[in-house]
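lol ok so funny story. i was supposed to be doing the assay writeup but got distracted and ended up predicting the structure for this chain instead. priorities right. anyway since i did it might as well share w the group, maybe its usefull for someone
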Amino acid sequence: MRRGLLRTRVIAIGATLTLGLAACTSTVAGTNVALPAAPNANLAVVGDSRDTFDQTVKNSIDDVLRFWTKEYPSISGGKPLPRLKGKLYSVDGRHIAGSALQNGCLKRERDAIIDNAFYCEADDSIAWDRNSKHLVPVLGAKYGPLLIAMVLAHEFGHAVQQRLGLFDQEAPEIVHESQADCAAGAFTAYVEHGQAPHVRATPVDLDRALVGYLNVRDDTPADEKQISHGDGFDRIGAVADGYTKGVTDCFRSDWADREFSERPFERGEDAQQQGNESLDEVLNPAPQSANGKGGGGGLQPDLDRFWAGAAKTVGKTFTSVKIAEADHPKCGRTTSEFGYCPDDNTVYYNRSFAQRAYFSMSVLNVERDSADVSVVENQPGDFALGTLFAYGWGLAVRHQLFGHGLDDAAALLAASCYTGAYAKDINIADFTTTHKFVLSPPDMDEATSAVLTLVGSDDAYGSRGTTGLDRVQAFIKGYSGPNLGVC
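and the output, tada:
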């Protein structure tokens, strides 16, 4: 069996292809003083091209091995890390021949390496497609070498699972894959704390890599059986947990009890629209009618509904927030194009920026014949824009219910947390008598993307000294938390 980076990406630009790819503290010890840069790793690799990409992979694997040599005893009852029995394989996905076919998984399924990196249980090996126009090199070129290291850390996470006997336990594939994502997050903390000999990363590098990692999310599955690696929120959430809590949390005994948000579409109409309302619907503040038709998308009335109910739980009253189109907010960050003004309890939006936010998603395009990969920008995502509105309501909660300031990092992180709490309330599979507005399956990916990128832009709320990871962690806290007090 092979355990890879992702299961499937189906992209509708030109030819399309379904890819079969199987498979705020840190527990990292040491100081934040970076180690001196080490010479390039000299690992034995079958098919080594000795180009820059393969050297980056070798450096990454060397650092991952050092990390796990140190950390493995903490989850194995003190046992040392067993070495890989198999080899490392660099394969050109356009020319799969010769020594590459020594690999235990490629003997069985030659094309498994195309646009992939995987851990192979058959011979305890790791392989990757090094073709410069294929998946991992393309993502590395766009999102930085840290993303390449995270990919290899994910794959070695599967090697750790094999050593612990976790594959012998019956569990959905998403359990194993998210656990490997968590392992990648723990390794990433090790890198950012300056403990890795080769891989270097700043918080900016990490945010960039997380945006790339979001692009290896599953497509919305056709049914429950197709759930594999997780949607973007599942994957980034697991990485964030590993980063924050370390490997002992990743490999805790109840990891399989983790809640996942990936799910198929429930209604054909929703699937045809890929879960997206139109831009005008998102911007229309009127509620939907009883039959769910007309009157705009219903987001803003539903935000009022949720926060009015939440306010009652703390014995307070929430005043409905208004929205208005304007070049800039009337108070606060008046140079931005999207923001909340407490003076008149209004979220202001510039339509041009709102349109950019709506068309802010990126997806992977895979050419049918060559398997060449490209990242396609400016794809629609209604809840990316919706998340910006939810942040405005989050700031209103902070101002109205608790009287706190709105201009600093604490305010933005609180709004992130409140937005997560709201997302949890409406991320349900179908309408109920109390929920006329609910999220579609891709919406959590759109929210995650917005939290990482849009929210912290100068055109919106501004970063205020926070990173994308900071905001994602706060969003997750709200999504996981049972009440207002968690934020």
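The chain is about 40% helix and 10% strand. Residues 6-32 have pLDDT under 50 and may be disordered.
back to the writeup now i swear
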